[in-house]
Amino acid sequence: MPDKSAPIVIVHGAWVGAWRWREVADLLRDRGHRVFTPTLTGLGERSHLTSRDVNLAMHAQDIANLIKYEALENVLLVAHSYGGMPVTQALELIPEGVVTSLLYLDAFCPDDGECLNELTAFPAHLPEDPDDYLVLPPRLVLQGFNAHMTDEARTSYEDRRTPQSVFCFSDRTKLSGAREKIPQKTYVVATGYKNDTFIPVAERLRQDPAWRVDEMPFTHDLQHVAVEETADMIESALPAASQ
Q: Where is the AB hydrolase-1 domain (predicted)?
């Protein structure tokens, strides 16, 4: 039986923050779940903390520290988009047995030594100015990522996105197999847009019996276009109750 008391930690994607997951998080809380949505250092309301030190390792530490200091156990750890990179790295820092279920939602799922820039057709390169380390958020409407938005919603979205350190995208993972030890692992791919980045990930994981692979017929920003369905999918990945 799923553990309905299990804490849920949701990690957002690039250039945004916890604000992007407010509707899904609020719905899950209304359903009685404990939900944590950390904003990674240098982004969202923590954008004033950005520096050249912000990288993939720091974002992994953000996640591991939340779980440590909130003393969470039997955790469902959810990653969206870029969030799959620091979530995967964070598992190397979290004691074994604390995270018991993983859910990647249209997210990167790297192997050891990989960086995001190698896993996407839209790599985030260092700006031309050698003193600059920030990558501006791309306008994603042409890629179909947020084609579902109204003009008003898209303007609000673009106004709140923040530049992100290039080292989040260029730093390589250092993995020893902690992810493979997680008892429950689910990968969900969005099929409502031309998804050349994440469909191959889903197809690869379909060959691994340790993974459950599912689909959602929406665009990349599942948490915006399919709030209730995304909350349902998260609930479906809750870990089994501790014995």
A: 8-227
